[in-house]
Design brief:
217 residues, alpha/beta, TIM Barrel, eight-stranded parallel beta sheet, 8 strands, globular, binds D-xylitol-5-phosphate, binds zinc ion
Length: 217
């Protein structure tokens, strides 16, 4: 199993001071920056696009774990890759040609990820496991930060772990939504290896270095 990774979500930072948000993430010792892209169509909320990602890229060397909550993500893969994203994670529900989309992500030079909404079964990725660098099990319905962790996703994480192991996959198993020190421990036990934290990270009152350690377990 890969070493636990922590990916604070810039979505919960002050949008008027994104560079400050990146500094906070760097100072915490976290591994990745989770970048939530929302289009107002796949999800109700709108965040930002490639030009903002490109501007962020100039301010940090940390990998960008980019979560595309957008319809027709294939139209924007190259733009996000060029903007400096390290990994591109598409939502399975938005990709009728998921196999091709994953190939295109790798061709663009990025790590290929797939996210599954809480209601989407793992079968959606069963036939593309060899094309996956990251599997993201959503533990909230995507669209907003600060929602509560859906506990009934724990058996799904366990199943995902078993599925990846059985296939000999080294893909990162990431969880996103309502992750804090307590829920991360449950996810770790279920086999998750990467932890996105938005509100728990930016809303943290104490030492964020300690929080990052706690999320890693
Ligand atoms: C939700 C996003 C998450 C969000 C998580 O749609 O995909 O990445 O930033 O925020 P918290 O950790 O506050 O649930
Ligand atoms: Zn996300």
């Amino acid at each position: 199993m890969s070493r636990p990774l922590v990916a604070p979500s810039i979505l919960s930072a002050d949008f008027a001071d994104l560079a400050g948000g990146l500094r906070t993430i760097e100072e915490s010792g976290a591994d990745w920056v989770h970048v939530d892209i929302m289009d107002g169509r796949f999800v109700p909320n709108i965040t930002f696009g490639p030009p903002v990602v490109e501007a962020l890229r100039r301010r940090t060397g940390l990998p960008f774990d980019t979560h595309l909550m957008i319809v027709e993500p294939e139209r924007y893969l190259k733009a996000f890759a060029k903007a400096g994203c390290t990994g591109l994670t598409v939502q399975a529900e938005a990709c009728p040609h998921l196999h091709r989309t994953l190939q295109e992500i790798r061709e663009a030079g990025c790590k290929a990820g797939v996210a599954l909404n809480p209601s989407t079964p793992l079968a959606a990725v069963e036939n593309v496991l060899g094309d996956l660098d990251l599997l993201l099990v959503m533990t909230v319905n995507p669209g907003f930060g600060g929602q509560s962790f859906i506990r009934s996703m724990l058996p799904k994480i366990e199943k995902a772990r078993a599925m990846l192991d059985a296939a000999g996959s080294k893909a990162v198993l990431e969880v996103d939504g309502g992750v804090n020190a307590e829920t991360a421990a449950l996810c770790r036990k279920a086999g998750a290896t990467a932890f996105v934290a938005g509100n728990a990270f930016f809303g943290h009152k104490g030492d964020r270095r300690e929080l990052v350690q706690a999320l890693r377990g």
